[in-house]
Amino acid sequence: MIFSPFERLVAFRYLRARRQEGTVSVIAGFSFVGVALGVATLIIVMSVMNGFRAELVSRIQGVSAHAAVTVTGGGPLTDDAGLIDRLRAAPGVTQVMPVVEGQALATVNGRAVGVKVRGLEVPDFQARPIVGRSVIRGLSDLGEDGVALGFNLSRSLGISAGGNVTLISPKGTVTAFGTMLRRKEFPVYAVVDLRMPEQDGNLIYMPMAAAQAFFRMGQGVSAIDVFVRDPRDVDTLRATLAKAAGPGFTVTDWRQANKGLVTALGVERVAMFVVLTLIILVASFNIVSSMVMLVRGKAASIAILRTMGAQRGSVSRIFLLAGASIGAVGTLVGFALGVVLTLNVQAIGYALGQVPGIAGSQMLLFLTTLPAIIDWAEVALVVALGLFLSVGATLYPARRAASMDPVEALRHG
Fold first, then answer.
1. Buried-most residue among 20, 151, 310, 374 (CB within 10 A)?
2. Which residue intervals of 216-355 are DSSP H helices?
């Protein structure tokens, strides 16, 4: 047993401040509330950001694929050696989709926007995660030469489903009179809202055959997109697909394809954790203040305890227990509050939507649409951090109380 019954009795009696020690009680109360709010805020914000990251990564993976297999060194890819069948038979693979990708200039009534064209088989377009379920206007069947535009791109061009868009390829056709740009008009069959501004602003989907004809690729494709059951283990994913593809092919996983965004998300996660930890740190400094004032106010009591036979270690443990109790209880209350609010964050968002002036705000939309994902390992780290800072904050006051000279304390009252 770390603390004896005597030490627990004296520590909790010291926490019940008398009228003349009301200032100590107020500071201790603020310390308790600060630790609780700090821990709860850290749990809530980190969980909401986990949901945001999970949703964003899910959309990245659904739009760009978990991995892409291309020819090493570039160039069109053909399935002469049964590459698609080998990839489809690889462990963990759920979908394999050939794609044609190229750059073009989209024009409508004098408006021009540089776009990325992605050619897919129509069944693959409909079955592709995120994309097939994101059609907000028009039809998901692109026919033989219909195209689907990203939502922001359709707004930039001022066109919607039912209109026509002209695509101009940067690779022209060489003739006796010079290089002629290839251009063709395509009917817009659908508008998709991927909820990713970069993708929605420059992406066009079209049927595979139409893309091959437009970019003069014959029967070749640019890459083969692969989807797997567990895209989180990227090292195993690359190794498995590289073994299935064989020599002469390069496997690029979703993290490599979106390296800048993945790095930014990692930095944001660490920065958010550090900034919010400062709330708990400030509350811990309040614990130091309250314990120092308590030690000064109880100088005579400490001297009496020492003259009655209490050891330095016993006095130190009394104040260590008194201060750590504030932080420990605050941490546990913050843990419970944070978990409860996180599990009900969407319900809270809907309730706030009934308040005049708040309904329809972007923050409210963020709360009601994105899931809050509790990472229990992260929560355990937050609780451990709260307890560590709370106990650490009491070390100095406890040591100061233990080192107090009882003779001097009694002499000065």
1. 151
2. 234-245, 254-257, 259-297, 299-307, 312-343, 345-352
Q: How many CB atoms lie within 10 A of CB 70?
A: 19
Angle (CA) 198 201 203, round 5°: 95
Dist. CA 297–CA 362, nearest whole Å: 51
Please say whether the beta carbons of 370 and 48 come within 8 A: yes
**pTM, full prediction:** 0.74
361 Rama sector, left if φ>0, alpha if ψ -120 to 50, beta otherwise: beta
Give yes or no for a contact between 27 and 290, defined as CB atoms under 8 angstroms apart. yes
The pLDDT tens digits of the residues spanning 181-206 come to: 788 899 999 898 887 877 888 889 99
CB 332 within 8 A of CB 43: no
Q: Which residue has the tokens 């437009």?
A: 214
What six digits make up the tokens of 315? 């006095």
Query: Reduced to 3 states, what is the DSSP secondary structure of residue 326?
Result: helix
CB atoms within 10 A of CB 339: 17
172, 182 in Cβ contact below 8 A?
Answer: yes
φ, ψ of residue 2 in degrees (nearest 5): -75, -45
Closest CA to 137 of 186, 188, 187: 188
Classify residue 99 as left (phi > 0), alpha (psi -120 to 50) or beta: beta
Q: Are 398 and 10 in contact (CB under 8 A)?
A: no
Distance from CA of residue 195 to its chain's centroid? 16
Kindly report, residue by residue over 375-400, the tens digit of the pLDDT: 899 899 999 988 888 888 888 888 87
Beta bridge partners of 169: 182
**Do 139 and 190 touch, CB atoms closer than 8 A?**
yes
CA distance 117 to 149: 10
Q: Strands, DSSP E only, in 14-141? A: 67-71, 93-108, 111-120, 135-138
Is 230 strand, coil or helix? coil
User: Mean pLDDT, the chain, as a whole number?
Assistant: 81
Q: Which of 106, 96, 228 is nearest to 169 (CA)?
A: 106
Distance CA 155, CA 201 (A): 9
Q: How far apart are CA 241 and CA 225, in angstroms?
A: 11
Q: How far apart are CA 394 and CA 328, in angstroms?
A: 12
- DSSP 8-state secondary structure symbol assigned to residue 229: S
